Amino acid sequence: MSNAMTADARGRHPEVFTYPEFTSREANHYREQGYVHLGRTLTAEGLQQVRDQVMQAWTAEKGAFDPQGTWLHNALLPDIHHLSDLVRTYYFNGPMVAIAEQLIGPNIKAVTSQLTFKMRGNTMPFAWHQDNVYGELDPYNAITCLTALDDADVKNGCLRLIPGSHREGQADYRHTEEDRRAQRAVELAVDDSRAIPIPMKAGECLIFHCHMLHHSEGNRAKDRDRRLMLFRYADADAVEVYHDRRPRLGRLLRGRTLFPEVETFEADLSG
Ligand SMILES: O=C(O)CCC(=O)C(=O)O
User: Fold this and answer.
1) Does the pTM exceed 0.90?
2) In angstroms, what is the span from residue 124 Cα to ligand 1's centroid?
3) Which atom of ligand 1 is nearest to the CA of 76?
4) Digit-coded pLDDT (tens) for 207-255
5) CATH of the domain spanning 32-264
6) DSSP readout, the chain?
7) Closest ligand 1 atom to 157 CA
8) Domain segments of the chain: what residues?
């Protein structure tokens, strides 16, 4: 799985990706509400290929769902772009990169890729959190992009979020180095009555701000999986506040960076 895909003259891959409009209407919604449901970003063919490739990786790593397994074992597989060439192209060169430029600025790096799965039988919820509490990045304008690989609704544990909560800023919560090492889940106390579910169709993408309060319930649909793929994009000079403000390593996708270690990070990976 190492071949780079060939792009068309506009640098696009229309056979596998769909390029949603992102106008001032969507940008304003993002600014006010902290999220935008982009609609479809994978074609039917793209969705099929992504599912096939990530399931090979997931099954090789995790095997079948294990009710005795830890939350981490059952839910997360990091760096999925190392394990699938199509995911790598989607992450480095897919439709969300131009949107990241609009929302963040001209200098962009790709800072996280992971699968976040709740297979049928996995009734463990994800607690309320902000993605910037797990790993505080400065500047505070990183975005998360969730691509649904299954139809997701309330029954199988779709995302729930609090519109506008990104305007409340970084949550006052200490996720210590030890918590990080032990990979403990962040659990923020929030007013759940302000939350709304965000149902998604497979192949659609949702973008939200790094301060968006969000969580999801367990998968209570006995016959359906709820598979998501998560990417984060940040300013190319974003630093890890919790790590002596060292630069977050991530592949430089657009523009330039002050940090040589970012300039070279994953530069040899085709995408
Ligand atoms: O998979 C989910 O339901 C939640 C994922 C999530 O919130 C995250 O990984 O930040």
Assistant:
1) yes
2) 12
3) 9
4) 999 999 999 999 999 999 999 999 999 999 999 999 999 999 999 999 9
5) 2.60.120.620
6) --PPPPP-TTS--TTTB------HHHHHHHHHHSEEEEEE-B-HHHHHHHHHHHHHHHHHHH-S--TTS-HHHHHEEE-GGGT-HHHHHHHHHSTHHHHHHHHH-S-EEEEEEEEEEE-TT--PPEEEE-HHHHS-EESS--EEEEEESS-B-TTTT-EEE-TTGGGG-S-S----HHHHHTTPPP-----GGG-EE--B-TTEEEEEETT--EEE-----TT--EEEEEEEEEETT-EEGGGTTEEPP-EEEES--S-HHHHHTTTTS--
7) 3
8) 32-264
